[in-house]
Amino acid sequence: MPNPTRLTALSQADFIRLLTQSGARTLTAETLRADIESGAPVNEDGTLNLIDYAAWLMKETAENAD
C-alpha cells in the first residue's frame, strides 16, 4: 500500500511540489528556506505541517500589512 500524503508532515521537496501543483507561483526552495530562517514552523524531524505554515504565513502577512 502506498504511503499517504500527510499534510502535517511533508518533506520540504513534497511541500514545494504540493503547493506549486496547487497554483503557488512564488514558492521556491530558496523562498521556503528564507521563511524557515525567519521563523516558519518546522516539525522536530524537519518536515513541514501545511496548516501550521499557512497560519504562520497569514500572521506574517498581517503583521507586515500594519
Q: What does this molecule look like?
A:
- By secondary structure, the chain is mainly α.
- The protein contains 3 helices and no strands.
- The chain is globular, with a radius of gyration of 12 Å.
- The N and C termini lie far apart (48 Å).
- The mean pLDDT is 93.
Overall morphology: globular
What is the number of E strands? 0
Q: Ranges with pLDDT <50 over ≥5 residues?
A: none
Proportion of beta-strand residues: under 5%
Task: Give helix % range.
Answer: 40-55%
Which key phrases capture this entry?
mainly alpha, 3 helices, 66 residues
List the helices and strands and how they pair.
Elements lengths: L11 H10 L7 H9 L12 H16 L1
